[in-house]
């Protein structure tokens, strides 16, 4: 009040702006994020340019060879299958389909989670009740048996069907998280200002709400992609995928059917399983890293102590 009487305006509160590229700086300073990103980049390179990693291969990586069930050698680094196919070449070329399943299914499940979760929280009332009830139903369903039934009767061996099934069974957990986060934002001042300005609901959700949830959306995508990788490999191992396709799950299926371990070829059985595990680890590490980046309370105690000591 005295500032007004004296004719001087009160000092405007300082606004701390987040520097551009802050999320990338946070990733560069997070060991989990860097390791996960390095692994994921390796798999992207394998999927994009597989020939770069198998330069001696001419023609089809599934071409039948003359030396079936051979152990690892200089000519065949991981041995050969029961039809004489090079296991290493199949492993490299199988990366593309496995990564495509992870990205498309993870992206589809994340989009569905965002649409249902954020809409339920923002709209409220009957819409919230209906969408929340639908989410709860999918949460309590026995997921893997349902996936097997749907994949079997909707189109066994059809990659598109498998991806759709993974999307339909992988969105509910993320939708619950999105709804909880959106509920905490629904009555914030910046949203009230948008309503007072007369903005449409769709504009408020897309322009005002979603940008504040980017870290949660990215973490949800990584979790959904991890779920898709492991589940798709399990389905293909059970024979519910296309047995003629090139994927890690299909390699596991043929290794089991043709007795890789019985014939003394552990590399044939273990290499696709290790590839699935490493891709899953890359998604999991990035997921943990984004949780730490978005929530300082989850960061390691030693890092917080070092920062406190430096500030003091």
From TrEMBL:
UniProt xrefs under Gene3D superfamilies: MetI-like
Name this polypeptide is given: ABC transporter permease
Cellular compartments annotated: Cell membrane
Domain called ABC transmembrane type-1: residue spans: 99-287
InterPro entries: BP-dependent_transpt_permease, MetI-like, MetI-like_sf
Keyword Cell membrane (UniProt): yes
Gene Ontology annotations for the cellular component aspect, listed alphabetically: plasma membrane
Organism: Kribbella pittospori
Family: Belongs to the binding-protein-dependent transport system permease family.
Transmembrane regions listed in the UniProt entry: 33-53, 99-123, 130-153, 159-176, 203-230, 267-290
GO molecular function: dipeptide transmembrane transporter activity
Superkingdom in the source lineage: Bacteria
UniProt keyword terms in alphabetical order: Cell membrane, Membrane, Transmembrane, Transmembrane helix, Transport
Membrane protein topology class: Multi-pass membrane protein
Subcellular location, principal: membrane
């Amino acid at each position: 009040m005295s500032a007004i009487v004296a004719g001087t305006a009160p000092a405007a509160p300082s606004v701390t702006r987040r520097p551009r590229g802050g999320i990338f700086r946070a990733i560069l300073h997070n060991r989990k994020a860097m390791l996960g990103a390095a692994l994921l980049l390796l798999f992207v390179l394998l999927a994009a340019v597989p020939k770069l990693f198998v330069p001696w291969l001419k023609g089809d990586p599934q071409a039948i060879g003359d030396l079936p069930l051979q152990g690892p050698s200089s000519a065949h680094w991981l041995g050969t299958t029961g039809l004489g196919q090079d296991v290493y070449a199949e492993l490299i070329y199988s990366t593309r389909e496995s990564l495509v399943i992870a990205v498309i299914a993870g992206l589809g499940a994340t989009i569905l989670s965002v649409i249902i979760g954020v809409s339920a929280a923002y709209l409220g009332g009957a819409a919230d009740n209906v969408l929340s009830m639908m989410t709860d139903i999918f949460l309590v369903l026995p997921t893997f048996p349902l996936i097997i039934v749907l994949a079997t009767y909707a189109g066994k061996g059809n990659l598109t069907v498998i991806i759709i099934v993974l999307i339909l069974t992988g969105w509910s957990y993320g939708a619950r998280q999105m709804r909880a986060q959106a509920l905490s934002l629904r009555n914030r001042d910046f949203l009230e200002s948008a309503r007072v300005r007369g903005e449409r609901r769709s504009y408020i959700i897309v322009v005002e709400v979603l940008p504040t949830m980017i870290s949660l959306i990215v973490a949800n995508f990584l979790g959904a992609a991890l779920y898709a990788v492991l589940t798709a490999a399990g389905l293909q191992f059970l024979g519910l995928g296309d047995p003629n396709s090139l994927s890690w799950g299909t390699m596991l299926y043929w290794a089991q059917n043709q007795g890789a371990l019985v014939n003394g070829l552990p590399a044939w059985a273990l290499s696709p399983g290790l590839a699935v595990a490493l891709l899953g680890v890359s998604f999991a590490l990035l997921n943990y890293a984004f949780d730490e980046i978005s929530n300082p309370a989850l960061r390691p105690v030693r890092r917080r102590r070092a920062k406190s000591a430096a500030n003091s």
